[in-house]
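Input (Phosphate butyryltransferase):
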Amino acid sequence: MVNFNEVIKFAKERGPKVISVACCHDKEVLMAVEMARKERIADSILVGDIEKTKEIASDLNIDLNNYELIDIKDISEASLKAVELVSQKKADMLMKGLVDTSIVLKAVLNKEIGLRTGNVLSHVAVFAIEGYSRMFFITDAAMNLAPDVNVKKQIIENACKVAHSLDIDTPKVAALCAKEKVNPKMKDTVEAKELQEMYERGEITGCIVGGPFALDNAVSVQAAHHKGIDHPVAGNADILLAPDIEAGNILYKS
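Output:
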């Protein structure tokens, strides 16, 4: 996968899915689900304040007769209902609308109807960047504050699932740090090396893991060669594992 046009083509070939939208009364959300419907990527169930949703849809010339509508004005209850639709297999995926992430996550983690799997939940952002012949997966920029090495392992595994779903069979994972050499005083460089060693022992599969890497020598072959780094991931990373949420969020928003 090189760009989102390829992702859209890939999605179309697999037929439309169903999205459950939590708190749908938002302009950008309605524009996105309408595009997905027209492209035959996905149909959507809209959960939220339907009166407000109708007002927004009217301004956008979106016909809501193409959607299933569930009117729940309370954002916590709407989030819980949207999650329940996925839990009951009435929808394939959940989309966050005009609601705080913390409220949606509370619904996702609900013990009775939530989407718990027993694994760490993590955030993966997918980017297509001009000048690169591959897409980038940045993780975790939003959920895990200061993950230890075992949580980072699970974050890698989650990101690999996303990459695999886009037909990237063996993604290359770079454990990012401020520098590409292990420094005992910089715990993230130590943990990056531990993650590489976990991969080498077969404890992390479905990808190639290397670290520590600075950002430049993770994404640029020229920068990696300049530093004398010889590793399959060097300059060729698909997945960029941030050391913590602060670094990840800054990179994600840059």
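The domain at 16-109 is CATH 3.40.50.10950 (Rossmann fold).
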